[in-house]
C-alpha cells in the first residue's frame, strides 16, 4: 500500500510539472468525466461474480465466462456512450478534451476487465497477484511520465504531450489486465460463455446492485 501511495503521488506530481494548468485540467477532467460511466459499467458484476463462483457445485469456468461476456458488453456500451457524447457536445468541440476522453477511456476499460479477473484471485485466496499487477501498473505509468520530466518537459502546452500522458495511463491499465490474465489462467480456463440462460440469470442477479 505504501508503494502504491508513493507511486500515485509521484504520478500526480509529474502531471503537474509536465503539463500546463490548462492541459492538467483537461487531463484530470477526462478521468473525472469517465468516472460516472465507469461506475455504471461495473453494474454490480463483481459482487455477484464472487458469490456465484463460490457457490457449492457451481461451474467456475461457465459462471466466469458468462460474467466476462456481460462485463465486456456493458463496458463497450457505457464507455462508448461517454465517448460519443463528449464528441457531440458543442461546448467541447475544438478543444483537446474529446480526444483526451477517448484515450483516457482505455484506463477504465482495462481496469474493469482486470477487476473481473480479480474475482478468480479472491475465490482462490490468491490476492497477492492483484498487488503485483497493480504495483507494476503504477511503476509503468510513473516511469513513463518520468521520462518526459527527465527530458526537460515543463508546463507543456503541446497537445502531443497531453495525449502522450494519457496514452501512458492506458498502457499501464493494459499491463494490469495482461498480468491479471496471465496469473488468473493458472487457476481457471478463461473462455467467454454465451449460454443464454446463464447470461440472463447473471444479468438479473447483477441488476439490483
Q: How many extended strands? A: 0
Work out the helix count.
9
Q: Compute the separation of the termini in Å.
A: 28 Å
Task: Please trace the helix and strand order, writing H or E for each element.
Answer: HHHHHHHHH
Share of β-strand residues? under 5%
| Rg on CA atoms, Å | 19 Å
Q: What is the structural class?
A: mainly alpha
Percent in helix = over 70%
Mean pLDDT level: 92
Q: Globular, elongated, flat, extended or rod-shaped: what is the shape?
A: globular
Report the sheet with the most strands, covering strand number, pairing sense and barrel closure.
none
Q: Assembly state here? A: single chain
- Low-confidence parts: none
Helix-strand layout with pairing:
Blueprint: H1 2-18, H2 21-42, H3 45-54, H4 60-88, H5 97-104, H6 106-123, H7 128-150, H8 159-184, H9 196-206
Please give a structural write-up.
The chain is built from 9 helices and no strands. With 209 residues, the chain is an all-alpha fold. α2 crosses α5, α4 runs antiparallel to α5 and α4 packs antiparallel against α6. 33% of the residues are buried. The mean pLDDT is 92.
Keywords:
single chain, 209 residues, mainly alpha
Q: Brief description of this entry?
A:
The chain is an all-alpha fold.
